[in-house]
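pasting for the record
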Amino acid sequence: MAIFVERENVSTAWVEGLDRLLAAGGEAVNLTVVIGDPTTETPAIRAVVDAFIDERRRERRKVERVSTVANTIFPESLYIERLGEAAEAHLYEMERRGRAVNRRRNSYGTYFERMVAWPVWPSKGKAAETFNQLDQAVTRLRGLRERGVHRGNQFEIGLAAPAEHGIAMPVVVPGRDTLTMGFPCLSHVSLSLHDGAVHMTAIYRNHDFIKRAYGNYVGLGRLLRFVAQQSGWPIGELECVSASAEAVRGGAGFARGAVTELLEACRLAEKEAS
């Protein structure tokens, strides 16, 4: 049974999504979360989530902090906004320099790497190349702004489709990504220009709501902000569709009681912050 959640910021959207998942038995299909302003959080809720994760990181290898998960989608520290238009090229260059280090940590790379360095299979006798899908999407959006066009949806950042036409930014590499679970769970990101603002839709084939979803929402919000700033458009909303989502049965194996306590603590923090 599908679940639809709509909230104003990352924190409240994630809490409501978790509440609805638990009410559905801890897992669901077609969970859609819409965040009105994906660049904002409720600090008190974020503190509760960070504390929950930190308590368990020593015991469970695959439990990562929210900031670590978010950086796989958008490495915030590499984006220097004060550089203005030069910030985009600087971001890509810093990612390229650090790619080898990231690969030692994770042989599959990161989502951001797939967006800015999608592998292009070479023709016989030619060296392997990469394609920067994100740069092309930003360039196209910037071009529409310069022409005074305020609507369009030809800026997709697909992550599972080929990039021959530059419409999508693929993440899944055929013949290399063979896991049915795990990386890459994010399969598609679509950018739409509507009423003079850039909106984003992200599609996950499976989503561990405790280990990944909060950090994913943060990272996607940062990615959307980057696209909007570099193309000159206001930021719109973020919609994240999880084909399958789990809150208590994922690989981390969190017990329902612990997740319920986390939800209660988040609800209390939300109430105190309002």
